[in-house]
Design a protein that fits this description.
This protein is of the alpha/beta class and about 475 residues long. Helix content is about 30%, strand content about 25%. The protein has 13 helices and 21 strands. A five-stranded mixed beta barrel has the order 1-2-3-4-5. It has a five-stranded parallel β-sheet with strand order 7-14-8-9-10. Bound molecules: flavin-adenine dinucleotide (FAD) and nicotinamide-adenine-dinucleotide. Flavin-adenine dinucleotide binds next to strand 2, helix 2, helix 3, strand 3 and helix 8.
């Protein structure tokens, strides 16, 4: 292995590996070093997202939804099945297989791009010297012209409930359970709490979700959040808002959790608890104190708008820097930095980053919520189309939810799109593209959408902005 590279990327998650690939595409010599260790001791590229986040969670969401539908929905279609049985071991094997294939894919992509991929731990010293301790224990030192830090994030622990990985679980533990808990407490009704709570609820667990805030899905548009809450309650997720956890006790194979809400002190017991109260940036022993890289008060690596740290030619991207902790945000930052290093133009539009929660119904949005527009004093028009009026959604037996478009009163520019319903995560791509191109509601109105598709909901919501919807009564 050479001892000098144009670019050294530390971390091969969704922020790091695309940066390495793009830097190699730009004709630069690249090393990408990643420390990920699976619980069986094996190494893998792909970071949190591929190994313990986005991909395994979506595999289980898909399987658990099919199990639920086989049990509860097939009969509506006139399909009678009997003896539907859960084989959790097979479900988990499928999940692990997908992860294995995808992480192997990252290694193959890095290789094909000509990047040197190294399993090991890296530490930055002044002058862009990178110390590497390889997975086999070998030590080496690499000199880099540029360094990209992409060290990611880890789950936040609660003082009252430190992870023991048996009864008090982090999100990775919760993806790899070998049996369905009879009773499960989820702390935090955020994205992970709702996605993993849904998985285990669908597979038969009694799930109680304790959320500290009084408001459900406070970051989302509240019309959408209210609709979501209604569906989750119907599905049997016992969501308790304004619940401040004060303590927990593990004894005799179960956990009891104490919490306080407006009505007083309560105690709940369950087989296991998933703590999903957010993630914190990870940078333990990533750089020496004299490297010139700084952290902000919350532990994020300090960067400017273009992801430059305080040290010359040292950049940082992904979950370890400010902004939403989303794989696609990290990917765009990684690519942009690799282009900037090569002297090419790059930009990341932080105003137009889609968010998706992969529950059923799915939830997705991009841009401003109604609450944000009101707070900013921006005058807007709103158009809503319910999936109940969509032929395709009806055919799919998935007619819950709606699509909502918010457009500026004066210019008609689309300011925000909020969808709860079937494949909302796919539908939001059209809205994201429209907003990236600063489209107006009229632009969407004049765009032909195939019939019958779910995407017609966006077309009709755009028409409803001007009370000109065709397939729904304009109010
Ligand atoms: P990471 O993916 O955390 O990768 C960082 C890598 O750097 C790791 O492999 C780590 O081992 C390595 N590293 C750290 N320090 C060093 C060092 N000193 N030397 C070498 N290597 C080092 N996001 C979405 O957009 N969509 C989803 O559906 C989604 N689902 C999720 C589900 C779950 C359960 C979880 C936990 C997260 C989910 N996320 C999702 C969030 C997503 O996983 C993160 O936003 C994303 O992984 C961040 O990418 P990253 O490259 O910044 O960091
Ligand atoms: P989150 O920030 O989405 O939600 C955490 C929730 O826990 C919040 O509602 C918060 O109010 C609550 N909370 C905080 N402290 C609490 C306490 N002491 N008691 C009770 N509730 C408390 O965080 P997360 O769900 O852990 O997810 C972590 C990150 O991973 C997020 O940034 C998210 O974007 C990302 N992620 C994304 C996806 C996706 O894109 N589909 C899926 C999973 C995770």
């Amino acid at each position: 292995m050479p001892d000098a590279f144009d670019v050294v990327v530390i971390g091969a998650g969704p922020a790091g590996y695309p940066a390495a690939i793009r830097a190699a595409q730009n004709g630069l010599t690249v090393a990408c070093i990643d420390a990920w260790k699976n619980r069986d001791g094996s190494n893998a590229f792909g970071g949190t997202c591929l190994n313990a986040g986005c991909i395994p969670s979506k595999a289980l969401l898909e399987s658990s939804e099919l199990y639920l539908r086989a049990n509860s929905e097939f009969a509506v279609h006139g399909i009678h099945v009997s003896g539907v049985e859960l084989d959790l071991a097979a479900m988990q094997k499928r999940r692990a297989g997908i992860v294995h294939t995808m992480t192997g894919g990252v290694a193959a992509l890095l290789k094909a791009a000509g990047a040197t991929a190294i399993h090991g731990t890296a530490r930055l010293r002044p002058g862009r010297l990178v110390e590497v301790t390889s997975a086999d224990g070998a030590q080496s030192e690499i000199k880099a012209r540029h360094v990209i830090l992409a060290s990611g994030s880890v789950p936040t622990e609660l003082k009252a409930l430190p992870f023991d990985h048996r009864f008090i679980l982090d999100s990775w533990d919760a993806l790899e359970l070998a049996s369905v808990p009879r009773k499960l407490i989820v702390i935090g009704a955020g994205v992970i709490g709702l996605e993993l709570g849904s998985v285990w609820r669908r597979l038969g667990a009694e799930v109680m979700v304790l959320e500290a805030l009084e408001k459900f899905l406070a970051i989302a548009d509240q019309q959408l959040a209210l609709e979501a809450m209604r569906h989750f309650k119907k599905q049997g997720l016992d969501i308790r808002l304004g619940a401040k956890v004060t303590g927990a006790l593990v004894a005799e194979g179960s956990v009891s959790v104490q919490y306080q809400d407006g009505s007083g002190a309560h105690s709940l017991s369950a087989d296991q608890v998933i703590v999903a109260v957010g993630r914190r940036p990870y940078s333990a022993d990533l750089f020496s104190a004299d490297s010139g890289v700084g952290l902000d008060a919350r532990g994020f690596i300090q960067v400017d708008e273009q992801c430059r740290t305080g040290a010359e030619n040292v950049w940082a991207v992904g979950d370890c820097v400010r902004g939403p902790m989303l794989a696609h945000k990290g990917k765009e930052e990684g690519i942009a930095v690799a282009d900037r290093i090569a002297g090419r133009y790059a930009h990341v539009n932080y105003e137009v980053i889609p968010s998706v929660i992969y529950t059923a119904p799915e939830i997705a949005w991009v841009g401003k919520t109604e609450e944000q527009l009101k707070a900013d004093g921006i005058s807007y028009k709103s158009g809503v189309f319910p999936f109940a009026a969509s032929g395709r959604a009806r055919a799919m037996q998935a007619a819950a939810g709606f699509a909502k478009i918010l457009a500026a009163s004066d210019t008609d520019t689309i300011l925000g799109v909020h969808i709860i319903g079937p494949l909302a995560g796919e539908l939001i791509a059209e809205a994201t593209l429209a907003m990236e191109f600063q489209a107006s509601a009229e632009d969407l109105q004049r765009t032909i959408h195939a019939h019958p598709t779910l995407a017609e909901a966006l077309h009709e919501a755009a028409l409803a902005v001007d009370r000109r919807a065709i397939d729904n009564i304009n109010r």
